Amino acid sequence: MMLSRIADSLFWMARYMERAEDTARILDVNYHMMIEESPHAIRMRWDPLVAITGEQERFAALCAQATPRNVFEFLAFSPENPSSIVQCITSVRENARTIRDRISRELWEDINSLYHEVTRFNPEEEMAVGPHRFCNAIRFGSHSFHGVADDTLPHDEGWNFLQAGRALERAEMTARIVDVEYHKLVEAPASSDTAGTHQWMAVLKSVAAYEFYRRQYHVRIEPEKVAELLVLHAQHPRSIRFNIAAIQQSLRAISGSGPEAYADEAERLTGKLHDSLMYDRIEDIFARGLHAFLSDVQKSCRSIGEHIARAYFYYAVVA
Amino acid sequence: MPGPQAQSAEDHLFREYDTGSFFDEMFEAPGQPRPYYARVFQELGGMALSQFEELRELADFSFLLQGITFTVYSDGRGTERLFPFDLVPRIVPHSEWDRIERGLAQRVRALNLFLQDVYGPQRILKDRIVPRSLVYSCRHFCRQMIGVDVPRGIYTHIAGIDLVRDSRTGEYLVLEDNVRTPSGISYVLENRQVMTRTLPRAFQLHEVLPIDHYPAELCQILRMISPRGGEHPVMVLLTPGIHNSAYFEHTFLAQQMGIELVEGRDLVVDCDIVYMKTIHGLTRVDVIYRRIDDDFLDPLAFRPDSILGIPGLMGAYRAGNVALANAVGNGVADDKAIYAYAPAFIRYYLGEDPVLSNVETYLGSNPEHLCYILEHLPELVAKAVGESGGYGMLIGPAASHAAIDEFRERLCANPRNYIAQPVIALSRCPSLDSRTGRMAGRHIDLRPYCLFDGEKVIIVPGGLTRVALKPGSLVVNSSQGGGSKDTWVLRGET
């Protein structure tokens, strides 16, 4: 028996944790690539970082132009940005607090100490030394969160909502990363091959897939291959396909439906998307247009989220 | 083990400790610990100041890690503060506890009988033991409860009775009854846990009675009152939510009892049945341990602006389809004016003499008392009858002329709403003075938690010892700068 509100909080707790981790990864990797580049390239690259997190409008309202410093502050610390890392970790803890009787003591203490660690960072100091130290702490915090959750929570419905939340957030984030990076490449082709390679290496590193790419393809970094890995790979835990499969598995575990049926709209959409990720080849996707495809993926992710909420979290008023 | 004597005078925690003119829980005479404190004195007194400071930091860190904090919004950022915890335990030898326990059991039984009576046949009013007007003018008297048959006749499932020790006599007195939704038990249980980790050696020196069976005992009572009976009733703890200052306690108790923690929005009433909203549909609820005040429980029955409550809950309760703990309308029994009659309840309902006395109380509603109060206000403690948490209170000897005059005006405008009592010189217990880093005497009280299953009263040994950490202060409430201590009831006398 699980209260809808608790399922809702578990789902969002995982989403916020994933959002914090993904933002930290993007920020960390891009910042360090940036310091090897020329001033021109810097201006070229900081706007897209904001775009990846989907917070362009809010950023534009706050800052006239994207500088390394204000992008760092906006993504990491800004209280004005609800998706900033500090705000995400605060939301993780707020959600955990409303369900702390339902999560293990270990998980609560883990989240609580991460919160205290994160809020103790002094933005001025961190902006002076660069984002690595801060982003690393977030990455470790997220790994610890999932480790403790897996090891101390019963793998029941609640745990499945946690898994679904993480996978949905990650699938959407990966779709946005690939989309934005590709768009950038089309709009302003890299000044040289080296610069392009550099840029795609950064993408791979930001999703922990750089070494894996090297082993998988044994070739230099090619945008199409990177896209193939991040969109269609069945085993890499940050590919879109992997995460859609994870959502499907979690939703089926919650509803109890088998592979031949779906219990609700969220399951139907997930299954449909998973089929296309499983049977489409990267050439097919490029033929139809990568941007259109990724836009559809993002739209589907949002729909899946809404339908999960409708099926499990919201109640119409009882007449 | 080096005793206090082995320490050089400079770094002795109890150096220059002054027992003052108060009953000191630890020392029977300056430098002379009571027999049941001798070993703790030896242990703490032999400690270097820095070592004690380290232990204190360890204890604080443990509370912070568990998120046992409250939030202060005054600085605009929402800073989290710890409830101050003092490491010197309050020790109660067994014979003393025995008497307290008998007194509390008797009192809780009488309060429950009073509630049964006042919402039932009202014998005590007809026999003119308590003035009818006093009961009916009580803000927390709940007319909707008249004639309602509560499960097993239990109103006061959980009672927190505040005791103080009067320095003049050394006797424990009852200062206040709390039979609505008393809070604080989680601090009792957490304080003990932190204490066993921080000062494990001190526990080996004594046989301290365990307290961790409280959640199981409470859960057993909740199970018993389920209207549907059965082995596995659906029980929930109803909280106002994350912003309530006792939220930590709500989560703690729900988790310890293994019951669902719900907010008003998780529940819905249909045809006088309460349901909770789960991911697989509505599930019927049998028992609600509610930590929401009466006023906010049901916007249809009480305050229509309540968003914390559940519309229709009172209907379900009166129809007998759901049990509530504590019962609705209990506030009439812990009203500070009704309090003055508690010894009379004990005599009237039980035919016994009260084991624990009340503090002498003057009622604003009594014209003679009122005259006395108005004449002696600067020497008295005056309180609003329906308030708690140290609010609405005037401590005459510590108040300015202006404050006294202002209070007098309020008192005259609504005498029924006030009572006054002589200032009790509360006993003191050594506590760390964070400014000097040494021990100083600080006033304390004691709130034991009493569970009532309709037949017997179950009290976990000890309770919450609250300590007024400000020098000289008599107000122990956490909202007024109070802290707490672990309370040890010993199996024997030392």
Q: What helical percentage do the residues of chain B reach?
A: 25-40%
- Ends apart, CA distance between termini of chain A: 23 Å
Can you count the beta strands of chain A? 0
Order of helices and strands of chain A: HHHHHHHHHHHHHHHH
- Uncertain stretches of chain A: none
Largest interface: A-B, 25 and 28 residues
Helix content of chain A: over 70%
Q: What's the tally of helices of chain A?
A: 16
Low-pLDDT stretches of chain B are 1-7
Per CATH, which architecture of the domain at 360-422 in chain B?
A: 2-Layer Sandwich
Give the SSE layout:
The complex is a heterodimer of chains A (319) and B (494).
Chain A: H1 4-34, H2 39-52, H3 56-62, H4 68-76, H5 85-98, H6 105-120, H7 123-129, H8 132-152, H9 157-187, H10 193-206, H11 210-217, H12 223-232, H13 240-255, H14 265-279, H15 282-288, H16 290-313
Chain B: E1 27-29, E2 32-33, H1 38-45, H2 49-65, E3 69-72, E4 79-82, E5 85-92, H3 94-118, H4 123-126, H5 132-136, E6 158-165, E7 172-178, H6 185-198, H7 200-204, H8 214-224, E8 235-238, H9 247-257, E9 260-262, E10 267-270, E11 273-278, E12 281-284, E13 287-290, H10 294-297, H11 313-318, E14 323-325, H12 331-334, H13 342-350, E15 357-358, E16 362-363, H14 367-376, E17 380-384, E18 393-395, H15 401-413, E19 418-422, E20 428-433, E21 438-447, E22 449-452, E23 457-459, E24 464-468, E25 482-489
Parallel strand pairs in B: 5-25, 7-15, 8-9, 8-13, 13-14
Antiparallel strand pairs in B: 1-2, 3-4, 6-7, 6-22, 10-11, 11-12, 16-19, 17-18, 17-19, 20-21, 21-24, 22-23, 24-25
Helix pairs in contact in B: 2-6, 3-13
In short:
With 319 residues, chain A is an all-alpha fold.
Descriptors for this entry?
heterodimer, A: 319 residues, mainly alpha, 2 domains, 76% helix, B: 494 residues, alpha+beta, Dna Ligase, domain 1, five-stranded mixed beta sheet, 15 helices, globular
Describe this structure in words.
The complex is a heterodimer of chains A (319) and B (494). With 319 residues, chain A is an all-alpha fold. Chain A has 16 helices and no strands. In chain A, helix 13 runs antiparallel to helix 14 (265-279). The two termini of chain A are 23 Å apart. The model of chain A has no long low-confidence stretch (mean pLDDT 90). In chain B, 45% of the residues are buried. In chain B, helix 3 (94-118) crosses helix 13 (342-350). Chain B has 15 helices and 25 strands. In chain B, a hairpin with a 2-residue loop joins strand 11 and strand 12. The longest helix of chain B is centred in the first third of the chain and has 25 residues, at 94-118. Chain B is globular. Chain B has 494 residues and is α+β, with helices and mostly antiparallel strands. The A-B interface holds A 1-5, 7, 94, 97-102, 105, 108-109, 112-113, 116, 157, 254, 312-313, 315, 318 and B 64-67, 234, 241-242, 247, 250-252, 254-255, 260-263, 265-266, 268, 270, 276-280, 282-283.
